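Now for one specimen:
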Amino acid sequence: LDRDSLAAVIPSFLRTCQPYFNHLESTARSTVSQYTSTPDICTKLLDFSQQLCDRLEQLVLAFASYNLLCLNESEPNSTSHFCIGQSRLGQLKMTVFRYCKATPYLARVDTGLYKRMRWNVERLQNKPKEVADEEQNGDSKEAEAETVGDTEYGTVRMWSIGQWVQVNPNPTTDDIYDWITCEVPQAIYHRLLFLGSDEPSSSGATDYLQQLLLSLHSLHFTFNKLILKM
């Protein structure tokens, strides 16, 4: 295979793995499974999902080390992150993404924050299950969570989960021209949960987020974008 053909193998393989992630995560994390399955089974499913995530991340980084893949999120053909599953929490649908390396929180603005994960959370509002299952991207009506870090020397990295709060374009505007002329949306980070100095695993971070979502849902919290940051 030439370099271009070899580079195309990994994105295709990542897409092939997504249904397996969806099955593992939805089976282990859905509210129905938590009542009908034993904790041991759910733990083993999540452990397997974590192992699959770790191996794929190592594979992507290996290809990137030979300049076969680009991990820069601002590039249109980059492989900066990949989906590691979907699950349902009552009327909430959560889609999880893993960044292969610490990625700037905003693509073209230096905020000193870097993300390692993102969760898109959507309130389904009695949407038919077959329609919800078709929406694999989680690109709208979402809540997002990412891992972010400060790379300055001497800085202690701290991890937290927070909310992506868009400021430009104004998310309430109906003027499509504002969206057309905006190359990269701008946002601020609103911390919701402090996790400490140790980076959590992707599965562990999702556990924290799931607990947070369930508690916020009971308080009728309005979901937008959630961020896991350092």
